[in-house]
Amino acid sequence: METGILFGYTGIDLLRMGFAAMVAILFLQSGLDKALNWKGNLSWLTGHFAKSPLKGSVPLLLPVITAIEISAGTCAGIGLVQVALHGDPSLGTWGCTLGALAITLLFFGQRVAKDYAGAASLVPYFLLCAGGMWVFMA
Fold this sequence. Notes:
Elements: E1 5-6, E2 9-10, H1 11-36, H2 38-48, H3 58-86, H4 90-112, H5 116-120, H6 123-137
């Protein structure tokens, strides 16, 4: 067996598949939860941002973040399959990039709402997406 190869995949292929799987799980679960529990999420977020400059924009921003999360998860999921079958990193790159955008938007919202602990909890997810972008673009 050659060094750096497992089941015919290179080390970079395995890293790409790992990042893609994590990003797909993260954003498909989060986006689908928002879509399937729309009223509950809208109610919670409206209360969460009630004392912030974003208070009136929650109904407009929730579909935007939901669409970005589902797009990130879908691209990462398809990207995982593309890498596994063809070694093609294109959609995985998009998944991680859209994921980084989603986390940045969520981070902004948490900071504006002065939920600093909530904002801090997003940093590892951003690092996951940024690491994925780096690995997919390598």
